[in-house]
Amino acid sequence: MSGCVxxxxxxxxxxxxLVAGGEVVVLSGAGLSTESGIPDxxxxxxxxxxxxxMTYQRFTGDSAxxxxxxxxxxxxxxxxAQASPNAGHRAVTGLQERGLLTGIVTQNVxxxxxxxxxxxxxxxxxxxxxxxxxxxxxxxxxxxxxxxLTGANPGWxxxxxxxxxxxxxxxxxEAVASFRVVDxxxxxxxxxxxxxxxGETVPPDRVEASFALVHQASLLxxxxxxxTVMSGYRFVLRAxxxxxxxxxxxxxxxxGDVHAALTLDAPLGEVLPLLYAAAGRTSPxxxxxxxxxxxxxxxxxPGPKT
Length: 306
Ligand SMILES: [Zn+2]
Fold this sequence. Notes:
By secondary structure, this protein is of the alpha/beta class. The protein has helices at residues 9-20, 56-61, 63-82, 87-97, 112-115, 142-152, 173-177, 204-216, 230-242, 268-281, 284-289, 295-298; strands at residues 24-28, 101-106, 121-123, 126-133, 139-141, 162-163, 169-170, 191-195, 219-223, 246-249, 262-264. 39% of the residues lie in helices and 15% in strands. Strands 3-2-1-9-10-11 form a six-stranded parallel β-sheet, sandwiched between helices. It starts with 8 loop residues before the first helix and ends in an 8-residue tail after the last helix. Zinc ion (ZN) is lined by residues 133, 135-136, 138, 184, 186-187, 189.
């Protein structure tokens, strides 16, 4: 769906000017990973297919819901495991290597920033490659769990009707009923992917680390998030309160647009390589000369007002 999009070159250049000033904090969301084949349930391609996301309360309190989750997830994991970073992830890594980023905060649980070579990524919502025991808190790897689930369910995937093109899985009740869940190897407790579910709070240390990055930033650059959930939107609100400029690249409108100095509605895999190239052409010196359009460098804000 991205083939016919015409990129607004002037906006890419303006964004490059902002980014070339450095001290940029990236806040990324699902839209950055859709071009890696990972569906975005809130974005234009997702269309809210998963009408009722699993909540923490249901997962922990209902063994049937937990079995359904793991059965779907066992199939969906193949998609995550096979996904590789796209041009957008690589461009972000390039900006970091060029010394223009002071932090990367992501709402994504796919680990693709790190897979693209980025370092120090704050994974707000955790990472699907880890599994945590709800009872003894032991962490283990998803690859190991995948092996155990496959071993506990010989021939099971053959009974599944279909995996949809976008990787989501519709499972008939019989397939769920025959799926065997495995438990923690240490204590026999309940296993959960080490990600933040709906109804669960983001660990405070991650939130504080992210706020600290925003406080020091000269630009908050939102990539591929509609900012629907507060866990990401709050950083935009904080930036706005502090006078830190916000730029948003996303397909479709976002809740943060009203706070943004610049918005760009375009596919990230196309915009970010251009941004990377243009930010390299735009020297920091040029940014300073053109400081009226790069307020980050000159209009240093006072501390928090309230
Ligand atoms: Zn355990």
